[in-house]
Amino acid sequence: MDEEYLRALELFDKGVKLERLGRHEDAIAAFDSAIAIAPGLAFPWYVRGNALYELGHYPDAIDCYKKALDLDPDYADAWNNLGLSEFKLLHYTDALSAFDKAIARDPSNAFSWNNRGVILQIQKKNVEAVDAFDHALAIDPKYTEPLVNKSNALLALGRYTDAITTYNAILHLDSRNAQIWQEKGHAQALIEQYDGALESFNQALLIEPKNSKILIEKAKTLYTLKKFPEAIEVLENVLFLDDANVLAWVTKGHALTLLDRYRDAVFAFNKALTLDPDC
Description:
Strand content: under 5%
Structural class: mainly alpha
Radius of gyration: 26 Å
Helix content: over 70%
């Protein structure tokens, strides 16, 4: 192994270390020096692309990944990261094509399967998206991201019970995820499991007690159950946190009307109209 090649390897190693430290521009300089010595290797082009990606220079990152793939067409990670860069530029068809090529070369890569599913979701191909997420989860059952993405796809398909099962799987891995508790409660409310929905919202509020969105979901569920005083109490908590929350004023107005508290209801509706005349 000649001295120049050894020097190139040293520069590659230096660049990788700088990249891990988040010093992306310094890493690129090291990769450039290495590439100048050994331009025929795919890996330095790939890692140069990664540094550019982290800097948000997606077109330049794409050029690097394509150069790496010219040198090694079976470089699965380069295909995957090419897809990520195309995704960032909203080039969804090109991104999907790149993820498919990554999977063809490495079908055991859970990340590529998840990325494929994300594109299919955007394209509203939710049945195919669920299949992609299932492939990712078959490879890595503890990979949270495809579980979250799968639950969203199932909701879009109206498969609420399956979505709830998926939320339960996520919560088994991360029981402190307030957003997932909220989304589970929302799905439960959609299939009229209101008591379960309230329990889910309460779990979410134990984690994020000042989350107005969760409080409003809880209030709406109480309203549906005709528990108007309890709903109003929750809405007052929302308005204590955010006096300009139009939805809270409107919902409070409806609840007050059903309690025959008309003067208070008019005040709530007028407050909402002052904030948003089109509400």
